[in-house]
Specification:
There is one protein chain. By secondary structure, this protein is α+β, with helices and mostly antiparallel strands. The protein folds into 2 domains: about 160 residues, 2-Layer Sandwich (Beta-Lactamase); about 150 residues, 2-Layer Sandwich (Heat Shock Protein 90). About 40% of the residues lie in helices and about 20% in strands. It is built from 9 helices and 13 strands. The strands form 3 sheets. A 6-stranded antiparallel β-sheet has the order 3-2-1-6-5-4. A 5-stranded mixed β-sheet has the order 8-10-11-13-12. A two-stranded antiparallel ribbon has the order 7-9. Strand 1 and strand 2 form a beta hairpin.
Length: about 400
């Protein structure tokens, strides 16, 4: 018997195999169907998807055998991966110098026929083999070899899909951890800043009341500027806290409510000016869901329609429909609009499009990012249509929730 040599790229091969994280993974139907089909096509009793690590062969899938693997030094497949582009067929192993003394060949339940192809990763390193065995001499015809190679390509595609899924899972874990750290940081900083900010705003008011008669117009302007800056920073901090808590919206309390009642409460809170016309939906939908989250969405969108509008008369149209799966909403305005080249960025955190709003203040770019997170947490999505100086239309949906009797 001649034990298989070690490939010259063994270190890189094993590193790629570790990244695949497939050894000792659970059985999967996608792999098992391939070995079953390989056995049927090649007319052999045994077919195996074999993974080769530094010392062992491990069977990811097997058909027609109870074995789970073997040592690498006794393996047929160890020879196959030495020439990964070559189809290795051993018609009669008892007559082959490499295998005639192999324990699998000399055992009572002996292996006398082998055919295998290497299973390559995206860099061309062999992860293992797809192979078939028989206890007697055997030969594959041309079409059977072609079919076995085609099945091998399917296994390689499964490997690549697994690799990409693992990469995405690891990336998600990393992003979740980074988001957790950032959320804790934002919460800590916000908490530490809230009291000094409140003191600053209160002090500005006290200075204005107590020393108004002793200050000239410029001094009063400075105090007003100090207070406005404090209020702006306070809004920014509250926006950050809303953004990082919005992913918990799906766990909120679900209740039955009427949409127009919710919208009227929001309008009351916003203290809409007389020059603003808000048209509510004709159909007052009854919704079972998270009214707090939906209210926050509408609060943000209506506020934006009010702030980013330079017309003498502001017009906001709100509409809604429903189907078996979703509630669908729209809110349009006659505001300043959003340039086409900026529309893909508008939902990104800290992205602002307009230089200043109706009152001359610059936005902080948190509101629409929070809106998107809230809507996605409610099982829906949002998109916009907008023309500069003609207005913006936001359309979004939320998934219907099952009512509880």
């Amino acid at each position: 018997m001649i034990s298989p040599a070690i490939p010259i790229n063994e270190a890189q091969r094993l590193e790629s195999l570790r990244e695949l994280e497939i050894i000792d993974s659970l059985p999967e139907d996608a792999y098992d169907s391939i070995t079953q089909l390989a056995s049927y096509i090649c007319k052999t009793p045994i077919a195996v998807i074999n993974i080769i690590d530094s010392d062992h062969n491990w069977f990811k899938s097997k058909f027609g055998t109870e074995l789970g693997g073997s040592s690498r030094e006794d393996s047929f497949c160890g020879h196959t991966i030495l020439e990964p582009e070559t189809f290795l067929e051993i018609p009669n192993a008892s007559k082959d110098e490499r295998f005639k003394d192999n324990p699998f060949v000399t055992s009572e339940a002996r292996i006398n026929y082998y055919a295998g192809i290497s299973l390559l990763d995206h860099k061309g390193f062999p992860m293992g083999t797809l192979c078939v065995y028989d206890s007697k001499e055997h030969h594959l015809d041309k079409n059977q070899k072609i079919a076995l190679k085609a099945l091998g390509k399917q296994v390689e595609m499964l490997f690549e899909s697994r690799r990409k899924n693992k990469a995405l899972e690891n990336l998600k874990l990393e992003l979740d951890e980074n988001n957790r750290i950032l959320k804790e940081f934002a919460s800590t900083v916000s908490h530490d800043l809230k009291m000094p900010l409140a003191n600053m705003i209160l002090t500005a008011d006290m200075l204005k009341v107590k020393y108004a008669n002793q200050l000239d117009s410029q001094g009063l302007e400075y105090i007003n500027y100090l207070k406005d800056s404090g209020l702006t920073l306070s809004d920014y901090i509250n926006g950050l806290l809303d953004h990082y808590s919005s992913n918990k919206a799906h766990s909120g309390v679900h209740e039955e409510f009427f949409l127009n009642d919710l919208l009227e409460d929001i309008i009351d809170l916003l203290q809409i000016a007389e020059n603003c016309e808000i048209n509510l939906p004709d159909n007052n939908l009854k919704i079972f869901g998270n009214s707090a989250a939906l209210g926050q969405v509408f609060m943000n969108l209506i506020s934006n329609s009010l702030k980013y509008n330079s017309n003498e008369k502001i017009i906001i149209e709100i509409d809604c429909t429903e189907n078996r799966e979703f509630f669908n909403f729209s809110i349009s305005d006659n505001g300043i609009g959003i340039p086409l080249d900026k529309q893909n960025q508008i939902f990104d955190l800290f992205t602002t499009i307009a230089a200043k709003d109706r009152k001359g203040k610059k936005g902080h770019g948190i509101g629409l990012s929070t809106v998107k997170k809230l809507i996605e947490s409610l099982g829906g999505n949002i998109h916009l249509t907008s023309d500069v100086d003609r207005g913006t239309l936001f359309e979004f949906s939320i998934k219907r929730q099952e009512t509880v009797d």
